[in-house]
From TrEMBL, chain A:
NCBIfam families associated with the record: GGDEF (TIGR00254), sensory_box (TIGR00229)
Chemical reaction(s) catalysed: 2 GTP = 3',3'-c-di-GMP + 2 diphosphate
Residue ranges constituting the PAS domain according to the UniProt record: 7-77
Enzyme type, top EC level: transferase
Signal peptide bounds: none
PANTHER family listed in its UniProt record: DIGUANYLATE CYCLASE DGCM-RELATED, REGULATORY COMPONENTS OF SENSORY TRANSDUCTION SYSTEM
Organism whose genome encodes this protein: Azospira oryzae
Occurrences of domain GGDEF (ranges): 180-317
Protein known as: diguanylate cyclase
EC number(s) stated in the UniProt entry for this protein: 2.7.7.65
UniProtKB/TrEMBL annotation, chain B:
Coiled coil: none
InterPro entries hit by this protein: CheC-like_sf, CheZ_family_phosphatases
Record key words, sorted: Chemotaxis, Hydrolase
Full protein name: Chemotaxis protein CheC
């Protein structure tokens, strides 16, 4: 070696002092060194494991990736790394040094040693990467929260327009692939501007939230979802729902909102808060576009408003070639 | 410097045994079916190899590198377009954190995948040479092909032993490369060893 002045006891002390786990394995696969860092965290002393194979003390390591990597190092002299993500805690190590004892996440390096002497050894180094694992877990949670937040309407808590556009497109394409029905409801709170003028914007906000929650509560099936489409406009997507089922749900939504009995003195449609609903259903073919289905529901909604509001109108009953502008 | 068909076939066969073992290790780690195969093998000048690494949809490549020495000196690389590297790790780890780059721990997972594959390939070569090779630990790189590979090779005397590989994870096929950058001496050695391997195989039949 290049450092003849380093005496063996000093080198041994060094191995026991480093702030990571060190295991030296000889050509027969037996443990020659088990450093203090490991003894403290594994509950296995050097005396207990020295001269024995790792699998004798840790039976779960038999035929493991770690065992194969040690073999490769000893036989082919090739090094290996065992990442924390692909190898969950190969050694049962506990951190007792902190108040909350916790299992130690490990990143492991395995390298052949001392080739020139002819006796091949294998060095296993174990690093504590618990802090990095926690950091990435936090990062992951924050990224998920951010993603969820960016898809939610801040006031009502239902999906926002952005998320509606993406999910509606997804569901439309799914229906296209499976040749199934897809229905859309467009809903509008009747005389909402008058409601705001009469009761104030804060009451208006509360009203939007109550309506959104009621709509959400009434949707029973997993794939159905409601989104705030515009100011006082909501959209409901019902994947797989026939036109009959969609119209029935639309009527029950309209009734549920009426049943809330929220007073609305300036409404010309009813004495309480009410909604108008347009319903459209389609079994999309290959070249059909999602926006045409939405347009159908929109035209039906305008028609519902024109007929006096507080009602459900089906796009099937309309001539959809009429431009929506003319219906206004 | 070119390989004839017989030499190429012999090498593809040898490497396929090696990557098959790597696939088995990966599969047992993730508890899923993993398939690995060598599609083509070429021995080409460095600049031709660089052209192949400029993948169409990705400016950056993601690579795991190990330096080998002993029977011959070589730089070994596992190379994927950046987005394929992300896909591999996230399929293997089974986590969907949609960040644009691999996190520290994910890079390490990628390094391990590269390590398993490169060791399998170099083990094949070591068997061919009947002499063990030494290797450094794997390192992870991300950048343009020039940034990742440019600094590693000096002079024009070097060639690349290029394996086009197919990795199938959860029924998704992902194609990439294993590349060994070799010096002229190493190439001559390699070709000689392949010839004697073929002669032996023929004689054995």
């Amino acid at each position: 070696m290049g450092h003849p002045h380093l005496a063996a006891p000093l080198l041994l002390e060094l191995a026991h002092t480093v702030n990571e786990g060190l295991i030296l394995i000889d050509a027969e696969g037996k443990v020659q060194l088990w450093n203090r860092w490991l003894a403290e965290r594994s509950g296995v002393s050097a005396q207990e494991i020295q001269g024995r194979r790792l699998e004798e003390v840790f039976p779960h390591l038999a035929n493991s990736r770690l065992a194969h990597a040690v073999q490769t190092a000893l036989q082919q002299q090739l090094p290996a790394i065992l990442s924390q993500t692909l190898n969950r805690r190969p050694f049962p190590l506990q951190d007792h040094l902190h108040n909350d004892a916790h299992p130690i996440e490990q990143a492991i390096t395995i390298a052949p040693l001392a080739r020139e002497s002819g006796h091949i050894h294998c060095l296993i180094q174990i690093q504590d990467v618990t802090a990095a694992v926690r950091r990435e877990q936090q990062l992951r949670e924050q990224a998920q929260q951010l993603q969820a937040l960016s898809n939610i309407d801040g006031l009502t808590g239902v999906a926002n327009r952005r998320s509606f556009d993406a999910r509606f497109q997804e569901e439309f394409q799914r229906a296209q692939r499976h040749g199934s029905d897809i229905s859309v409801l467009m809903l509008d709170i009747d005389y909402f501007k008058e409601y705001n003028d009469c009761y104030g914007h804060q009451a208006g906000d509360t009203c939007l939230t109550v309506v959104a929650n009621t709509l959400r509560r009434c949707l029973q099936r997993g794939g159905d979802f409601v989104a705030r489409y515009g100011g006082e406009e909501f959209a409901v997507v019902l994947p797989g729902a026939s036109h009959g089922a969609a119209c029935k749900l639309a009527s029950s939504l309209q009734q549920e909102i009426s049943r809330l009995g929220i007073p609305h003195a300036n409404s010309h449609a009813a004495s309480h808060l009410s909604i108008s609903v347009g319903v459209a259903t389609h079994t999309p073919q290959r070249n059909d576009r999602a926006q045409d289905l939405l347009r159908g529901a929109d035209i039906a909604l305008y028609q519902a408003k024109r007929q006096g509001r507080n009602r459900v109108v089906s796009a099937d009953a309309l001539d959809l070639t009429v431009q929506p502008e003319k219906l206004m | 410097m070119e390989l004839n068909e017989l030499q190429r076939d012999a090498l593809v066969e040898a490497f396929n045994i090696g990557v098959g073992q790597a696939a088995a290790s990966l599969a047992s780690m993730v508890n899923e079916e993993v398939k690995l195969s060598v599609l083509t093998l070429q021995l080409i000048p460095r600049h031709e190899a660089m052209q192949q690494f400029s993948f169409r949809h990705s400016d950056k490549i993601c690579a795991v590198a190990q330096r080998f020495s002993g029977a011959f000196d070589a730089q070994g690389f596992l190379i994927f377009p950046e987005e394929k590297g992300l896909e591999i790790v996230r399929r293997m780890v089974g986590d969907s954190l949609s960040l644009k780059e691999l996190t520290e721990l994910e890079q390490e997972a990628m390094s391990e995948i590269g390590n398993i594959l490169l060791n399998a390939c170099v083990g094949t070569l070591a068997n061919l040479f009947r002499r063990p090779l030494n290797s450094t630990l794997p390192t992870y790189h991300l950048g343009s092909p020039d940034e990742v590979l440019g600094g590693q090779i000096q002079g024009n005397d070097e060639a690349v032993l290029l394996l086009h590989i197919d990795l199938t994870l959860e029924q998704h096929e992902i194609q990439g490369y294993v590349a060994f950058l070799l010096s002229v001496d190493s190439i001559a050695n390699l070709v000689a060893e392949v010839d004697s391997y073929i002669a032996q195989a023929m004689g054995g039949r």
